[in-house]
């Protein structure tokens, strides 16, 4: 049985169906007065399409001992050292890279995510410090979230938001996303002037954009 989320939007003029290629969530959006029965019939008539889209969603890989996870673009094996709580650390054994933690098994996924989020913040702050003097502007705030529709954003107040999952990508990708959002501090649009600023700040705009198009969706499979 297919499970779908039902949402109503006051601005919606027709029924729409979307399946997230990142998370596999299927969502039907309805105008305010459309009946649930109509939504059910619509979903049933598109069952094959939904199933096809869901089949393309990458298999989830949980943060569990033994899992292989990319960190800064390199594959690491997750290792649990023991029950007693201890700091996370990177290790190299027999040529393999690993991220090891010591904690109770039930806390392992949360501890991995917390550590990776901390590492992402450190890398993002380092890139901000690199670009701020050249741009002559600084963000008023930096927030990390687990977004599925965008990797970063910039508000009119100068607040920058990023996905913590950027720590899974190669460093040049994270660095580019920081440059991209920093460029919005000067140009709050995607005009030719914006892209001129972005290219002036960052030498790997094109290669990072290409990597995200090819591999970005796959970063959502972890955790």
From TrEMBL:
It comes from the Bacteria. One of its GO terms (molecular function) is hydrolase activity. It holds the Pfam family YgjP-like. Keywords: Hydrolase. Residues 13-215 form the YgjP-like metallopeptidase domain. The keyword Hydrolase applies. Signal peptide: none annotated. The keyword Hydrolase applies. InterPro entries: UTP_pyrophosphatase-like, YgjP-like_metallopeptidase. Gene3D superfamilies: Metalloproteases ('zincins'), catalytic domain. This is Metal-dependent hydrolase. It comes from Methylobacterium aerolatum.
């Amino acid at each position: 049985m297919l499970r779908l989320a039902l949402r109503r939007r006051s601005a919606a003029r027709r029924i729409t169906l979307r399946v997230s290629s990142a998370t596999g969530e299927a969502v039907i959006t309805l105008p305010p007065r459309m009946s649930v029965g109509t939504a059910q019939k619509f979903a049933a008539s598109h069952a094959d399409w939904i199933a096809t889209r869901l089949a393309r969603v990458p298999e989830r890989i949980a943060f569990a001992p033994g899992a292989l996870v990319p960190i800064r673009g390199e594959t690491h094996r997750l290792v649990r050292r023991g029950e007693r709580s201890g700091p996370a650390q990177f290790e190299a054994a027999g040529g393999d890279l690993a991220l090891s933690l010591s904690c109770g098994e039930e806390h392992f996924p949360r501890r991995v995510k917390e550590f990776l989020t901390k590492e992402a913040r450190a890398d993002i702050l380092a890139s901000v410090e690199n670009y701020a003097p050249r741009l002559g502007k600084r963000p008023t705030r930096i927030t990390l979230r687990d977004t599925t529709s965008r990797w970063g954003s910039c508000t009119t107040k100068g607040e920058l938001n990023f996905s913590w999952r950027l720590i899974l990508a190669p460093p040049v990708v994270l660095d580019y996303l920081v440059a991209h959002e920093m460029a919005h501090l000067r140009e709050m649009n995607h005009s030719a002037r914006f892209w001129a600023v972005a290219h002036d700040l960052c030498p790997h705009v094109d290669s990072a954009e290409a990597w995200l198009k090819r591999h970005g969706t796959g970063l959502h499979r972890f955790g």
